[in-house]
Automatic annotation (TrEMBL):
Protein name: Acetyl-CoA acetyltransferase
Organism from which the protein derives: Rhizocola hellebori
Active-site residue numbers: 89, 328, 358
Residue span, Thiolase C-terminal domain: 250-371
Domain Thiolase N-terminal per the UniProt entry, residue ranges: 5-241
Pfam families linked: Thiolase_C (PF02803), Thiolase_N (PF00108)
Similarity annotation: Belongs to the thiolase-like superfamily. Thiolase family.
Gene Ontology molecular function terms on file: acyltransferase activity, transferring groups other than amino-acyl groups
Classification via PROSITE patterns: THIOLASE_2
Protein keywords: Acyltransferase, Transferase
Length: 372
């Protein structure tokens, strides 16, 4: 089985609600990162075997296989196909997994893997049209009963189960903003529509956070403790050893491990815990071998529970802030995290980086990359 290498990674800025990317068509967001990726690597675009993009709520301007549309909107050869993946919040991380697996199997040599989401043009959960996806399923009701299934309830359930106070989460959320405001992402960002930096991080305080009402009655989670709806795109070029040699490429990292696991679909957001334990066991690594971690900040409680269960060093986790500060453009976040993880590993001279994120349905992907 051949190795899968990351040759380069790039992303757009993350645009805030009603921000500078709000009116940019998703195909054009994706086209910008794909074109920049091709330009920076110098690869012949006709040599790409497939474009695999993550996207959630694939309707309206995100419908019709947005992966293929992004490639064509970039003016690239129509001989290259595209496919769109939906594993909810982990969609573009799964795109990387599918791309790496294609390379490892020998059925592909070069893959563009990424994701795109414009949550201003296509609001979150648009595909559900206000109706629970479980409504009317006899099998679901027989198994899980008639109960609320939502990410907000799940985040509150996690805070209660792991005894994480609202105050503890607010301290974490403030740190996310502070880290994001101090970070320099310029090397990994391609400007779009005049926007050249992330729009979501903001100056805030514990006092401001304490003034917010919970999202659910008697809950602990507030808007300040949740990821922000946002717009953006991101992409990686994944190559085989043969493609690296034949095209004169310089790989920046190797895919060391990839896997996905499931957990309770009602509590929903806990799967990064068993998924991380599984990934470390399969890869022969310990949490102490991991130099940097990117775990998606869907909610503060998700990260804090994961920290308690894994024993990871908080100083190595989300060192440049996370989705609470930077925003969470659903289909693009997986490869946004991987892009930032790669650049930070290089800045620090680290070897291993681990990425994980909670996903709808009680799932989680884990990717471990090794800097070269």
């Amino acid at each position: 089985m051949t190795e899968a290498y990351i040759v380069d990674a790039i992303r757009t800025p993350v645009g805030r609600k009603n921000g500078g990317l709000a009116s940019v068509h998703p195909a054009d967001l994706g086209a910008q990162v794909i074109a920049a990726l091709i330009r920076r690597t110098g690869i012949d675009p006709a040599a790409v075997d497939d474009v695999i993009f993550g996207c959630v709520d694939t309707l309206g301007p995100q419908a019709g296989d947005i992966a293929r549309t992004c490639w064509l909107a970039a003016g690239l050869p129509d001989t290259v196909p595209g496919v769109t993946v939906d594993r909810q919040c982990g969609s573009s991380q799964q795109a990387v997994h599918f791309g790496a697996q294609a390379v490892m199997s020998g059925t592909a040599e070069l893959i563009v893997a990424g994701g795109v989401q414009n949550m201003n043009l296509v609001p979150i959960a648009s595909a559900m049209q206000g109706v629970s996806p479980f409504a009317g399923s006899q099998g679901w009701v027989a198994r899980y009963g008639e109960q609320e299934v939502s990410q907000f309830r799940s985040a509150d359930m996690i805070a209660e189960r792991w005894q994480i106070s609202r105050e503890e989460m607010e301290v974490y959320a403030l740190s996310s903003h502070e880290r994001a405001l101090a970070a320099d992402f310029s090397a990994e960002i391609v400007a779009v529509a005049g926007v050249d930096r992330d729009e979501c991080p903001r100056e805030t305080s514990l006092e401001k956070m304490a003034s917010l009402k919970p999202l659910r009655d008697n809950g602990r989670i507030t808007a300040a403790l949740a990821s922000q709806n946002a717009d953006g795109a991101s992409a990686l070029l994944i190559a085989s050893a043969a493609a690296v040699r034949d095209h004169g490429l310089r790989p920046r990292a190797r895919i060391h491990h990839l896997s996905a696991r499931g957990d309770d679909p009602v509590m929903m957001l806990t799967a990064p815990i068993p998924a991380t334990i599984h990934a470390l066991r399969k890869s022969g690594l310990t949490i102490d071998d991991i130099d940097l971690v990117e775990i998606n900040e869907a909610f503060a409680s998700v990260v804090l529970a994961w920290l308690k269960e894994t024993g990871a060093d908080p100083a190595r986790v989300n060192v440049n802030g996370g989705a609470i500060a930077l925003g969470h453009p659903l289909g693009a976040t997986g490869t946004r995290l991987m892009t930032s993880l790669l650049y930070e590993l290089e800045r620090r001279g680290g070897r291993y980086g681990l990425q994980t994120m909670c996903e709808g349905g009680g799932q989680a992907n884990v990717t471990i990359i090794e800097r070269l």
